[in-house]
Amino acid sequence: MSVKKTLEAKIKYRIKRSSYSTFVLSDFYDLSDRDQILRALRKLIKKKLILRVGQGVYVRTKISSATKKIIPEQNIRDIAMTVLKKTGVGVVPTPYEQEYNDGKTTQVPTGIVIGVNRRVSKKIGFNGRFVKYEKVTTN
């Protein structure tokens, strides 16, 4: 007698076993269709296993040692960088990051602004903090 796994169990297993903590919707398209995947992801959000940080962007959670609330495993910048990499957008240093890396300034960049090589309309954030994108042209 074989035990059939539910779609929710398959997605949960994939999330737990993955080396990434950030997932886009297309990571699960091989399991089922879009509507069923979204339904299973909503159940996992209710169980506080994952958080939705953008349209079609989900991240594994952990409990904050300071506030005891559910927070993403990674910081917002790392989440956005992973999503941009998965969607094929090139990430380049912003002019402020370049100046800091070259030693021209001692002001540390905030990390909330990410330099990209083309237009990005994806809004990624959590708890009121969102990533901004700056289109950087290379000379």
From TrEMBL:
Cited InterPro entries: DUF6088
Pfam families assigned: DUF6088 (PF19570)
Name of the protein in its database record: S-adenosylhomocysteine hydrolase
Organism from which the protein derives: Desulfotignum phosphitoxidans DSM 13687
Highest classification ranks of the organism: Bacteria, Pseudomonadati, Thermodesulfobacteriota, Desulfobacteria, Desulfobacterales
